[in-house]
Amino acid sequence: MAGKLSHLDDKGAAHMVDVSAKDVTQRTATAKGRIEMAPETLALILDNKITKGNVIEIARLAGIMAAKKTADLIPLCHPLMLSKVSVELEADKEASAIEVSATVKVSGQTGVEMEALIAVNVACLTIYDMAKAVDRGMRITDIRLTHKSGGKSGTFEAG
User: Which family is this protein grouped under (predicted)?
Assistant: First the structure.
């Protein structure tokens, strides 16, 4: 397996992939997801009436912080010096949900897909945690990579 980008070494043992021979490029990834809830819960969140605080802003901050800690959460994931993390949350009143989108950028030798996915997951989980006292039936769903650019594998756009 030598020379391959694999988490297994020649003996089949897990190890961090050596990316030192890869070119440094601008890399960007965007992930999206949603958390569905009762209409009353969404109204409380939007009216800033959840007793734990401003759910939207705390979820945004949690997502940003989580992206920066991805290497601590995902085994064998490279620690990266991220150049930008943005987390956007938008209410979908018709579906009684909050759409979460995270975009992460780095100039490096490996991509930031995991960082974007972690940011979305943690933002959704933060919303759940902050509002669970009024709605334990919330559902986190549709978390997926929607865009990736940079690196040898080129650009990915979800259909």
Answer: Belongs to the MoaC family.
